[in-house]
Amino acid sequence: MGVVTRAVRNIARRKIRALLVIIALGFCMAIMIAIPSGVMANQASTEALTQNLSNTITQTEASINQTLTQIDCSLSSGMEGFGFAPPDSGSSRFTPGQSGNSSFTPWQFGGGTRPGEFGGGAFGIGGTTPMNESLYDDISSIDGVAAVAPFLQVSEGHNQTITAPNGMSFTRLVPEYIIEGLPLTSDFIGNYPILPSNITAGRNLQAGDSGVVLLSENNTAYFGAGVGDTVTILDQEFTVIGIHGSTGVSDVTTLYMNLSDAQSLTNNTGYITGLYVFANDSSTVNNIASAISSLHPELTVSTAQQRLDQLQSLQSGYSTALDNAEASVSQTQATATQEIIVVVAATSLIVLFVMLYTVRERTKEIGTLKAIGFSNLTVMSQFMLEGVLISLIAALVGIAIATVAAPTLSSLLLPAVNPFAGRVVVSNGSSAANLATVTVDPQLMLIAFGAAVLLGAMGTLYPAWRAARIRPAEAMRYE
Amino acid sequence: MSETSEVLLKTDKLTKSYTMGKRDVRALSNLSFQVNKGEFVAIMGPSGSGKTTLLNILGCIDKPTSGQILLDGVDVAGLPESELYKIRRNKIGFVFQTFNLLPYLNARENVELPMEGKIKSKTERKQKASELLAMVGLSGREEHRPQRLSAGEQQRVAIARALANDPAIILADEPTGNLDGKNKREIVGLLANLNIKQGTTIVMVTHDSQVASHTERLLLLNDGKITKEKRGLHLNKKSA
Question: B59 at the A interface (CB within 8 A)?
Answer without folding.
Answer: yes
